Amino acid sequence: MHALIQGLILGILTGGVYALMASGQTLIFGIMKVVNLAQGAMVILAAYFSYTLFADFGVDPLLAIPLTTAVMFGLGVVIQLVFLRPLKREDSAQLSLLVTFAVALLLEGFMSVTWRTTYRSINTDYANASWTLFGYQFTVVRMIAFVLSLVSLGLLFLLLNRTRFGRAVRATVQNPMSAELLGVESKRVAALGFGLGAATAAAAGSVYGLLYPFNSGSHYDLISELLSIVVLGGMGSVGGAVIAALIVSTSSAVVATMFNPTWSSFTFFVILILVLLIRPQGLFGTVERGAL
Amino acid sequence: MNVPALARGGVLTVALLALPLLGLEHWVLNLLIFTLMYAAMSSAWNLVGGFAGYPSLGHAAFFGFGAYFIGLWFQHHDVVSGYEPFVILPLVGLLAALVGAPIGWIAMRTRADVFAIVTITLLFVAQTLAFNLDDLTGGAQGLAMPTPPFELARFEWPFYYAMLWILLLSMALTYLSMRSKVGLSLDTVRADEDKALGIGIHVQGVKVLSFSVSVGLVAMAGGVWAYYETFVYPQFAFDPLITIGMVLMVFLGGRATLWGPILGAVILVPGQQYLAYKLGGSQLYLIAYAAVFLLIMLLMPRGILPTVADRLRRRRAVGTSSDAGPPTAAPPSAGAGSSVPVPSGGTA
C-alpha cells in the first residue's frame, strides 16, 4: 500500500512534465495535422540549453525558462517555415511525418556534435532535497517540476481561450476551411502554432533536465512515450493529452515502485495497444475533426 | 504478360548473378551486399508504405527480429557447412510474417499518421525488449554468431547471393501484386480507403497481407545481416536509421513503383557509405544524412521515377495532342499507379 501511494505521488508529479510536452505535440497536430516526431528532440535541445546556461553561466534552470522558451519559439517558427510550409500536396501528412523525423535526426546530430553523447544532468543545490510527509517522499525538484508544468499549462490554456490568436488556433483545429473563410490566416497560425508547440517543449525541457540525466539519444525514448500519450488522449485534444499524460505516468510509476523499474517503460505500450483495440480514436479524440 | 518488364528483370538478374565472377575487391562486394540488402528491404517496405500508403516506421523491429532469430538459433545449433543459416531463412521470413500479421491487424486499425506512431513505438519497444530480456538476448552484451567458415577469396559470395535472392523475391512479389487484384485493391486503399471499403474491397485483408509479406522479407534480410556481421547488438539490430534508410530510398526512387526503391538504394547506400567514411566517427554523419533526407523530401517529394516519367509523358503528349491523361502504354514500372494524377505544374 505504501509503495502504491508513493508510486501514485511520483507518477502525478512527473505527469505534469509529460502533460506539458504532450500538449505542445497535440497542439501542433490539431493545427496542422502534422505528427511532430521532432518534439522529443526539441525537449532535449531545450534541456541542453538550460544545462549550458546553468553550467557555464550559473543561471538557475527555473530562471532560464523564459529565455529557452523564447529561443525555441523562434526555432519552431523557422522549422515550420523552412521545412513544413513547402509541403503542399495531398499526401503532405505522410511527408510531414518523415520531414519531422529528419528534423529530429538533424537536431540529434547537432546535439551530439555540440555536447557530445555523454549523459548530462543539471545538479542544482536543491537537486537531492526532499520533504517527507506522512512517511511519503516528496522530492523538491519534482514538486517544482509539477508546479512549473501547471503554471505553463495554465498559461497555454489562457492563451488558447482568452486571446484572439487562441481563438484563431481553435477555429483552425475545428475546421480549417471555415476558419480561413472567416479571415483566419491559416499560414500564420500554422507557423505560430508550431512555434508555440516548440515553446512548450522548451518549458518542459528545462524541467526535464532537472529531473533526469539525458543525452542526445534520449529523444527516442521520449518520443515514443509522448506519442502514446497523444494517441491515448486523442490526437489534437489538449485536455485529453493532459489526462492521458497523468494516466500513463502514474501507471508506469506504480509499475516501477511495485514491481520492477525495467518494465515500467512497457506500461505505456500496453496502454497504447489497449486503446487501439478498444477505442482507436483515443479518449477524447473525434474521428473526423480535431477537438480542443 | 508484359514482355519489356520481364526482359528488364531478366537482364538485371543475370547481371547481378554474374557480378561476383568479375573478381571484385572485398570492399566492393561488401558495399554491394549492403546495397542489395537495402534494395530488398526498400522494395519490401514499398509494399506497405508505397502501395498501401501506410508509412510504417517500425520495419526495423522485424529486421532485428530476423537478426536475433538467427543469432539465437545458432546459440543452440552448430554451423558445419556454413550454409545452415541460409537454409532456415525461409523459416525466419515465415515466422516474422506470422508475428507481423496480428501486429499489422491491430496497428492498421488506425490511419496513416497514427499508424506511423504505433509502428515507431513498436520499434522502440522491440529494442527495449532486446536490452532487457538479457537471459534470452544477452542484453547490451549482444549475441555472437559462429564465424562463417567460407574461404577468404569468396567469403562474401554466399551473403551476396542470399541478399540477391531476397531482393528478387521481393521484386517478384511486388510485380505479381501489381499485376493482380491485390495491387489494384492496394491502389484503391491508398487513394481512398473509405470508398474502397464501400465498393466491397477486403480492405483489412489486403492491408494485413501486404504488411505481413513486407515484414517477412525484411526479417530475412535481418537474418543474413546478423550472420554476415557475426554479432547482434540491440542498438544496431533495432536501429531507427535502418527504418529511415528504407523509407528514404523508397521516397527518393518513387513510391508504389517496382524499380523506384532499387534506384533509391543504388544511389543512397554508396552515398551513405561515402559520408560515413568521410565523416565517420563524428556525429556530423547524422547531420549530413538528415540534410540529404530533407532535401529529397522538399525538392522531389514524389521521387525520381514518377517525376521523370511525368516529364517524358508530357513531352510525348506535346508531340501528339493536348493533355490526354496517362496514355494507354504507360510503362507499369514507372508511372502506373504512382499517385493520383496531378495537373501539370504540381511540383516545381
Looking at the chains present, what oligomeric state does this protein adopt? heterodimer
Helix content of chain B: over 70%
Question: Rg of chain A from C-alpha positions?
Answer: 19 Å
| Major sheet characteristics of chain B | 2 strands, antiparallel
Order of helices and strands of chain A: HHHHEEHHHHHHH
The first-to-last residue Cα distance of chain A is 37 Å
- Name the structural class of chain A: mainly alpha
Largest sheet of chain A: 2 strands, antiparallel
Strand arrangement, major sheet of chain A:
1-2
**Number of helices, counting only DSSP H or I runs of 4 residues or more of chain B:** 16
Q: Hey, roughly how much beta strand do the residues of chain B contain?
A: under 5%
- State the strand order across the main sheet of chain B: 1-2
Return the average pLDDT of chain B rounded to an integer: 82
- Helical segment count of chain A: 11
Task: Write up what this structure looks like.
- The complex is a heterodimer of chains A (292) and B (348).
- Chain A has 292 residues and is mostly helical.
- Chain A has a domain at 21-215.
- Chain A has 11 helices and 2 strands; from the N terminus they run ααααββααααααα.
- A two-stranded antiparallel ribbon of chain A has the order 1-2.
- In chain A, a hairpin with a 2-residue loop joins β1 and β2.
- The longest helix of chain A has 31 residues, at 2-32.
- Chain A is globular, with a radius of gyration of 19 Å.
- With 348 residues, chain B is mainly alpha-helical.
- Chain B has one domain (19-320): ABC transporter involved in vitamin B12 uptake, BtuC.
- Chain B has helices at 3-18, 26-52, 59-76, 84-87, 89-107, 112-132, 134-137, 157-178, 181-191, 193-198, 203-229, 234-237, 240-253, 260-279, 284-299, 304-320; strands spanning 143-144, 231-232.
- In chain B, strands 1-2 form a two-stranded antiparallel sheet.
- In chain B, α2 crosses α13, α8 (157-178) crosses α9 (181-191) and α8 packs antiparallel against α11.
- The longest helix of chain B has 27 residues, at 26-52.
- Mean pLDDT of chain B is 82; it is low at 322-348.
- The chains are: A mainly alpha (292), B mainly alpha (348).
- At the A-B interface, α4, α9 and α11 of A face α6, α13 and α15 of B.
